[in-house]
Amino acid sequence: MKRISDAELEIMKIIWKEKAVKSKQIIEQVKDFNWNDNTVRTLINRLIQKKAVGISEKNGKEYTFVPLIDEETYKLEATKKFLVTFFHGSVLEFLEFLIDYDKKYYEEICDFLEHYEDLEK
For 55, which DSSP code? Predict the structure, then answer.
């Protein structure tokens, strides 16, 4: 999997959410980032080069972009890489780090597990 930068990921989130989207729509949705139109187009082109985004339709100069990588698959791969990079691939080391950092995470994890166990029954 090719690395997607944080800025590119913001574009991917829109494309994943919309399933098929034109550049004008993407530009509108990232206006809070204060990126100019050329910056957005550059990010889209990088995603195309990385084969993360494809073009499904062309109408004159207007393109419709679609995701070529699955959001859940990307999240899983990115999470695995994060865990390997910082926690030797161990979810338990990660959870221990969170709990040591802030005890509120312990309560959240316990609440989640209690709820999860209820779903399993």
Answer: E
